[in-house]
Amino acid sequence: TIVTVKQLLSEGLLTIPEYQRPYKWNQHNIASLFNDIKTQSDKPAYRLGTIVLHRSENDEGNAVLNIVDGQQRTLTLILTVMAIIKHYNLNESTKSKEEPDIGNILDNLAHSVPILAEKQKFASDISVYNLHSNFQEILRIISRGELSIEHIDFLLNKCEVVIFILTDESEAFQFFDSQNSRG
Fold first, then answer.
1. Which of 160, 134, 183 shows the shortest CA–CA distance to 37?
2. C-alpha distances in angstroms, 85 versus 19, 29, 107, 129?
3. Which terminus, N or C, of the chain has the lesser number of Cβ atoms within 10 Å?
4. Residue 46 predicted with pLDDT over 60
5. Sheet order of strands, 14-15 included
6. Confidence of residue 93 (pLDDT cuts 50, 70, 90)
7. By three-state DSSP, how is residue 103 classified?
8. Torsion of CA 89, 90, 93, 96, to 10 degrees
């Protein structure tokens, strides 16, 4: 399935499983992502990549979508939306009155994204450090005006990911392995 960033981050079942490696994206990765958003924003759509999910149940018997591949990108998108929401909530005077659709989208994401973020568990200090550092960097970028309302609109509504949902865990890992080793 092809979904927008807005649709991806509205999916409340996304989970980072314990077996995932630490979150290691840094400021260079953030800069590359934002540069792509800026340079591609004149396109009708832009694909950010593939996310491989494994549908299963958690210990309570609730359905979850474990992220097998795409964790770094997904977490960075979560951080970005949280930073956008924080910036515009703290800065009521800069809320775009001429872009009410963005305000509505952000209001909707303001409910789903923090819940999505809070349910993730990170055993690695590396992940916690990088998540915090990247969030602060994204806030700085937004506060400097380097991610305009038009860029935010493009990110949420025109940037897309291709999602593969598999129900067999070994099949999900096989798919992940073939995507990463053979393209």
1. 160
2. 30, 21, 8, 21
3. C
4. yes
5. 2-4, 159-166, 46-57, 63-69, 14-15
6. very low
7. helix
8. -30
At residue 97, does pLDDT exceed 70?
Answer: no
- Token pair listed for 149: 């309302």
Residue 128's contacts (CB-CB under 8 Å, 6 or more residues apart) are 122
Give the range among 15-19, 60-64, 174-178 with minimum mean pLDDT.
174-178
Token digits of residue 105: 């989208």
Tokens 């909707």 identify what position? Answer: 108
> What are the CA-CA distances from residue 101 to residues 6, 84, 87 (Å)?
13, 15, 17
| Mean predicted confidence (pLDDT) in 16-33 | 93
Exposed e or buried b per residue across 60-98, where buried means at least 16 C-beta atoms within 10 angstroms of its C-beta? eeeebbbbbbbbbbbbbbbbbbbbbbbbbeeeeeeebee
Q: Which of 71, 94, 81 is nearest to 139 (CA)?
A: 81
What's the pLDDT at 98?
Answer: 44
Measure the CA–CA gap between 107 and 88, rounded to whole angstroms.
Answer: 10
Q: Mean pLDDT score of the chain, rounded to an integer?
A: 87
- Entry pTM: 0.86
